[in-house]
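This entry is retained here.
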Amino acid sequence: MSPFHPFSREHYVTVAIGALIVAALIFAGKRGGNSRQLATGLLAFFNLASYPLNQAAWLSLGGKVALDNILPLHLCDIAAIIAGFALLTRRPILCALTYFWGLAATFQALLTPAISMGFPAWPFLTFFIQHFAIVAAALYLPMVEGWRPRQPLWKGPMEVYMWSVIYLSVAMGVNYLLGTNFGFASRPPDNPSLIDHLGPWPWYLFSMQAIAVLLFFLLALPWRARSVSDPR
């Protein structure tokens, strides 16, 4: 089983293929009718199926599976579940979490994946399926479904930031009890990532929070002059 190397040809090809699939789903959604129903259904399915697919992938290796890979408590595990229900229900808070978490956090995970196994290992495939499904949902909701962040400008980012702080607090508590590393709140990922440039633990946690707030506000800027629309 070959190891995964970030910024390799394998990585670039995978990202390119994923980007094309995301673009195709958005194009199908914008066509409307049956194409939109199919695209929405596929996106919802792959987001909601990400956790069982990941479990099947790790179990297929036949070895002991770490708690970090069993419990669905990484931010992207939770984001995938939320994204699936956001696509099905159009609930404003679920759409907001999908949009901001998907583009501020999950997108970065595609650029610096925290995975050790390369293609064609099943965990490699399910990792990218999950993360591309989240990013696709984050783009699909505003571009196809017409969702918009709450106004005034600060409401959406601060609401999602509040939930981000709650998630980080829970992750730190679980990590303390179980020795896991959910949210990378106990140590940076093994592969190179942005966290490597944010200082040692625990100081990088504060840097992460500051960057999260900045990114949330930047993601809200494209909608600052637009009126709120009911995502339903």
